[in-house]
From TrEMBL, chain A:
Name of the protein: BMP family ABC transporter substrate-binding protein
Superkingdom of this protein's organism: Bacteria
Family in the record: Belongs to the BMP lipoprotein family.
Keyword Zinc-finger: no
TrEMBL record, chain B:
Transmembrane segments: 12-33, 63-84, 90-110, 115-134, 140-161, 196-214, 247-267, 279-304, 324-346
Annotated source species: Paenibacillus glacialis
Gene Ontology MF term list: transmembrane transporter activity
InterPro entries (UniProt xref): ABC_transp_permease (IPR001851)
Topological category with respect to the lipid bilayer: Multi-pass membrane protein
Superkingdom of origin: Bacteria
Classification of source organism: Bacteria, Bacillati, Bacillota, Bacilli, Bacillales
Main localization category: membrane
Protein name: Branched-chain amino acid ABC transporter permease
Keyword match DNA repair: no
Location(s) in or outside the cell: Cell membrane
Amino acid sequence: MKKILKASLVLGLSLSVVLAGCGKNEEKPAGEAATGGAKTDMKIGMVTDVGGVNDKSFNQSAWEALTSVKKDTGAEVTYLQSKDKTEYTPNLNKYVKGGYALTWGIGFDLGADMKTVADQNPDAKLAIIDAVVDSPNVQSVTFSEHEGSFLVGVVAAKMTKTGKIGFVGGAEIPVITRFQAGFNAGVAAVNPDIKVKNVYAGAFDKPDQGKVIASTMYNDGVDIIFHASGATGTGVFNEATARVKNGEKVWVIGVDKDQSLEFGDKVTLTSMVKGVDAAVQKVSKEVIDGTFKGGKVELGLKDDGVGIAKTSDRNVPADVLALVEEYKAKIISGEIKVPQDMKK
Amino acid sequence: MNKLMKIFTLDSLIIPVVAVIFGLIVGALIMLAGGYDPILAYSSLFSSVFGDSYGFGETIREITPLIMTGLAVAFAFRAGLFNIGAEGQYIIGMTAATIVGIKVTGLPALIHAPLAIIAGGLCGGLWAGIVGYLKAKRGVNEVIVSIMLNWTALYFSNYIVRNFLLLEGQQKSLDIQPTASISLGGLSMLMDNARMHMGTLIAILAAVFFYVYMWKSKQGYELRAVGHNPNAAEYAGMNVKRNIVKAMFISGIFAGLGGAFQVLGVFHYQTIFTGSPGVGFDGIAVALIGMTHPFGTILGATLFGTLTSGSSGMSFGAGVPPEIIRIVIGSIIFFIAAQGIVRWVLKPLYLKRKKEKVL
């Protein structure tokens, strides 16, 4: 009995000490913010899809973009991660009802929920990546993924040694089929004899699945895999990294952002970069400037909305890159029309 | 009334409450270690749940399926079975309700909605019935069968949605007919567009049914007898095998209904699952927190649902990652499961009380 009293006394004391320490911690960031020279006190929120903010893919690049908006303008930015699909609506509503100037929804998955929230709150400003939401107060940003994927398809076809190339998609939705169709077309444009193996993991948040699929593909003699599968692709990279360490020569083509920065250029051949960050910054700043209008925009090669990563020259020889530039010019001029879905 | 008080005899009420408090303290310590302010975090959790009608409504939405899967687990538990397959039964209930909701047309809402609910419950029950049958006839362990059936249910329902109900170019089914909806539009308007539905009411009725059936009927008595000691029950002339199947069937109905509510009241469509939704597994924890009593289960689901729906409030208001709230929930369950610890801490209090009584 006495022992317990003593123990709880000690616990209580230590708790209060730690609590006191915490109080001090709290003051610091507030002071920093005050000296930071705030230009605006607007608040911008972002809701991720189930991939989460650390998906090393488009959620992450959207968040990085918002962080840099914060640095430039002093706007307050926060994000909410959605654990499952039931949380999209409440999370969007948290920001909308919390009086945020702009609410981002990242991903095709949030389309239906954003439509509902936008219609229920006509005064709120919202923006979405990868989906078209037909409401006047929503800015929809989509990308011509097929054009960018065509270019990495060209790279893959030129670089493969085995003549077998793989594609791993997250789920069979219009966004991802654009990746697949463009990639396949790009490979076929260089060498129609190369076989592309197309597999859908069925999920954007299952690295284990990605690893299994990649392992099967590499065992089949595939030496380059292009993935468009969010965090599932982490598994593809892990499998490739393990194999490269064992002396095998395999590559992954990254997606959405320059993934060589994340996974190293020993496994990352190149990346199909999507200008999610540029788009997020642009729309966010429109809201801050008061020029936000809503509507939809599709960003392609000519807007630099998609393209291959700048660091590609580390692994891709100059003649291949020159060929890529050639194709790029042809796509922009309209000489080549890249298909948006697979022919059945 | 007195009887109702007896249900929550002091011991069975105090231990969960103390366990919850311990869990919150552990959560606070972890937040401190991570550099977050626990008081701000808990207060923003509280205000996001009770601060406005929208948050409150969405919390009720979160609680409802947890009550159902919690009841499912608790019911089987009382009959001596561990139904770890509430997850699968929940998914099957969802799918059955979606099929009836989409494919059956031309019925008035008064018939269509109940039909979809019944289909969901029944299919959930049959799915669990497989487990009960195998256990009764062949003595196959119900834990193994039901956990395997979770995966079967997941991929089976994905197959159905993908091949028969798919909305072109999307990862989800078509919308159900408006006549099958159990959403309460008027109440939702009042609650600032929170997704309210009739399922919540049915969930509470289901808990009452659970209580009456289990403790006020002969059949319930048999179920409990089988749960306590199957050999003794058999010796007393009860049909143990039939009781096992029955217990699993009713347990599955609860879980299936939970899934049906989710489709008919919240989403109005079914998505292709990339992974298990987890509501059935949470139901195990809910039933444990509720000491496998139906009314305890409602309280357990309320606690669990409040914490889950408030977790986004915590990250919204105090920047605490939602993982921390899972740690808090985890530690609450830990303290309930490890009752010995709670009893040990409370022992001096009990001793004191006894002394007072003597005086």
